Amino acid sequence: MEKVCNDFPEDTVYVMSGIDPYYEKLGYVREGTIFVVEVS
Q1: For 1-26, b where at least 16 C-beta lie within 10 A, e where not — what string?
Q2: 38: phi then psi, degrees, rounded to nearest 5
């Protein structure tokens, strides 16, 4: 995810996953059934 965010810093990245607890643990924000990856 870090590479994707670095490669596309101006875009919003969304993740669809079957392992939601993993992305929740990383601090990604759930938006419906996907996670929004905030670029910092």
Answers
A1: eeeeeeeeeeeebebeeeeeeebeee
A2: -85, 125
CA atoms within 13 A of residue 23's CA, in its CB half-sphere? 20
Closest CA to 17 of 4, 3, 31: 31
pLDDT tens-place string over residues 1-40? 889 889 998 998 888 888 888 888 888 888 888 888 877 6
pTM (predicted TM-score): 0.54
Would you call 36 helix, strand, or coil by DSSP?
strand
Element (H, E) at 31: strand 29-31
